[in-house]
Amino acid sequence: MSQAENPVDAVARSAAPDTVEQAEQPVVSDKQEPLQPAVNGPVTDETATANLSKRQRKKLLKLASWEEKKKAKRLKEKEKYKLKKVVAIEQGLPVRNGPSRKELKRRVIEYSQATIEIAVDLSFDGMMIDKDVAKCVKQLLRMYTLNRRAPRPVPLHFTGIVADGAVQRHLSRYDGYKHWDVKVSSSPLLDIFPRERLVYLTSESENVLERLEPNGVYVIGGLVDHNQHKGHCLRLAQELGVRHARLPLTEHLVIKTRTILTINQVFEIMLHIHAGRDWQSVLLEVLPQRKGAVPKELLPSADPEGTNKGS
């Protein structure tokens, strides 16, 4: 560097490329970028999976397996429904064509055509083991679904729920149950309805329910006990001083075995009768086929009393 040369010019001159070829070469920084795995061609599921940990791959496989099982289950349910529909058509039974799930979520239950109300007496916490309480609550959920799908739904009440009891505990496991279009109450029946409107449905009653009374409130006992407390609902109705009745099973059908109906089955029968259908077709549709129920007129020599005493 000459004495007359500016120090700044000297630095600039030393940093400048000597040739055009040097100017075209890329400048390499002292700070190296982290190396990226080289991938030849587009990224595929295999290459993406290869970069995952063993635990992540295991989760992906589990998720894929679950999705496949879900699809297979839905397909199986569709085939089962189609077969059930074909059998119903062959037997001359009505085929259900209800609304879709999306439509049900948007639907607000309309009770303008309802002429009756149905209440489930849930004051039996101490008479059921926890397993049976769980079954009872599942049947309540089924009732709610049936009512939402019904062309002519009825006002539905869950009464006598014990505070912090087993029924309430199991109900709380269903998200949003407090928002169901059901009137849930811890109050007993007589604190909600006038005595003269109530009709307790029990299979031990000697009274046969032949028609539905306008403005009547029909009570279903929310007791799942596998017939261990036989006659309890009848005794309860008598103690309360309310009317009681049984469904007319043996008046329309001959049934090979004793039939104990679930809570939701009784409710489904009542829904259909409320919609204007006849007893015989409804009972044949709702009762399980394994019960071997046959229309009474097809067996004229059968015992008129039958082997079943009601619901």
Automatic annotation (TrEMBL):
Query: Which region ranges are annotated with the description Disordered?
Result: 1-54
**Listed GO CC annotations:** nucleoplasm
Where, in this chain's numbering, is S-adenosyl-L-methionine bound?
201, 221, 233, 247
Domain annotation SAM-dependent MTase TRM10-type: ranges = 104-294
User: InterPro entries recorded for this chain?
Assistant: MT_TRM10-typ, MT_TRM10-typ_sf, TRM10/TRM10A, tRNA_m1G_MeTrfase_euk
Q: Which residues form a coiled coil?
A: none
Positions annotated as active site in the UniProt record: 225
Q: Keyword annotations for this protein?
A: Methyltransferase, S-adenosyl-L-methionine, Transferase
What would you give as a GO molecular function for this chain, any one? tRNA binding
Q: What is its EC number?
A: 2.1.1.221
Spell out the reaction equation it catalyses. guanosine(9) in tRNA + S-adenosyl-L-methionine = N(1)-methylguanosine(9) in tRNA + S-adenosyl-L-homocysteine + H(+)
Question: What GO biological process terms does the UniProt entry carry, in alphabetical order?
Answer: tRNA N1-guanine methylation
Gene3D superfamilies listed in its UniProt record: 3.40.1280.30
Protein known as: tRNA (guanine(9)-N(1))-methyltransferase
